[in-house]
Design brief:
Number of helices: 9
CATH class: Alpha Beta
Largest sheet: 7 strands, mixed
CATH topology: Rossmann fold
Number of strands: 10
C-alpha cells in the first residue's frame, strides 16, 4: 500500500471514515439517483465514477446501467479501491471495474464515456480547471459531466448558534486550503466547463436542515465527530478546544429545537459539445 496515498487524504481512509461515507451515501442516495436520471444515465451506458472512494455510488451506477453497461471507478487510495472491490464482489456485480490512479497525475487511458459522476473531488484538487479538462477528454461528444460540489461552505451552521461549531467550519475550510483544495470550488466550475468545451444544462443548490431526531442530522454530526479526530491527529486543534466543541455539540444534540444546516452543494449537469 502506498502510505502517502492514505495519509495525505484530508479526512483519512480509516474504517470510521468509510462508515461515515456509507452513511453519507445513504442520506444523499435518493437525491443523487434523481440527478442521474435527469442527466440521462441509463441502461447500456459507460459511466465513470471519478474519485469513487469506497465504491458506494459505483455499485449503484452499475445497477442502473445493467449487464450491457459498464462502470469504471477511479480512485487513488488503495484502501478505498480494495473496499470497493470487496462490496462489488459481495453483491456479484460484474459490470464494474476499479482503477487505482491519481486523476491529476496519471495517464488514465479511459475514453468514450457517456457520463462522469464527480462528487466532492474538485474541492480537494489544486487545479480544478485541469481536472475538468481531463474529465472532458474522457467523454464522447454529447457526454455528461455531473458534479456535486460545495458552493457556499459557510452555510454549515447550527441553531441556536454555536461559537465552536462556527470555528470548526473555519478550521475545516483552512485545512482543505492548506492541502491545496478549495471548499467553495463550485463557484469556479461554470467557467472551467466553458473553457473545456462544455455547456451547462442544469444547476440547483442543495442544502439540508435537520433536527436531532432526524436521520439527516447524523450526516453533519458524523462529520464533526470524525473530522475533529482527524484535526487532532494533524495537530490543527488542541484537546482543550476539542473538548469545548464536543460539549457545545452535546448541548445542541440534547435540544429538541436545535437545527444543523448543512453546507450548500451546487449540482451541475453539463454536456460536452
Amino acid at each position: 500500500m502506498n502510505s502517502k496515498n492514505e495519509t495525505d487524504y484530508v479526512l483519512g481512509t480509516h474504517d470510521a471514515e468509510i462508515g461515515r461515507l456509507h452513511l453519507q451515501h445513504g442520506i444523499w442516495r435518493e437525491l443523487v439517483h434523481d440527478c442521474w436520471k435527469r442527466a440521462g444515465i441509463g441502461a447500456g451506458q459507460r459511466i465513470i465514477d471519478i474519485g469513487c472512494g469506497p465504491g458506494f455510488a459505483s455499485v449503484d451506477l452499475a445497477d442502473i446501467v445493467g449487464d450491457k453497461g459498464e462502470v469504471i471507478g477511479i480512485e487513488r487510495s488503495e484502501r478505498f479501491i480494495d473496499y470497493a472491490k470487496g462490496i462489488s464482489t459481495a453483491r456479484a456485480v460484474e459490470n464494474i471495474s476499479f482503477l487505482q490512479a491519481d486523476v491529476m497525475l496519471d495517464e488514465l487511458n479511459v475514453a468514450d464515456a457517456d457520463a462522469i459522476w464527480c462528487r466532492w473531488l474538485s474541492i480537494f484538487v489544486s487545479d480544478p480547471a485541469l481536472l475538468v479538462q481531463k474529465m472532458t477528454a474522457m467523454l464522447k461528444p454529447g457526454g455528461k459531466l455531473i458534479f456535486h460540489e460545495y458552493v457556499h461552505y459557510e452555510t454549515y451552521q447550527s441553531v441556536p448558534h454555536s461559537q465552536h461549531i462556527e470555528e470548526f467550519v473555519q478550521h475545516v475550510m483552512k485545512s482543505w486550503r492548506e492541502f491545496g483544495g478549495e471548499p467553495n470550488v463550485a463557484r469556479y466550475l461554470p467557467e472551467h466547463l466553458s473553457v473545456a468545451g462544455c455547456r451547462i444544462l442544469e444547476t440547483r443548490p442543495i442544502s439540508f436542515s435537520a433536527q436531532p431526531h432526524q436521520p439527516v442530522w447524523q450526516w453533519p454530526a458524523s462529520f464533526i465527530d470524525i473530522n475533529l479526530q482527524r484535526m487532532l491527529e494533524l495537530g490543527q486543534v488542541d484537546e482543550a478546544w476539542a473538548t469545548k466543541l464536543r460539549a457545545e455539540f452535546a448541548a445542541l444534540e440534547s435540544n429538541p429545537n436545535a437545527l444543523l444546516i448543512t453546507p450548500m452543494v451546487l449540482e451541475i449537469i453539463a454536456e460536452k459539445l
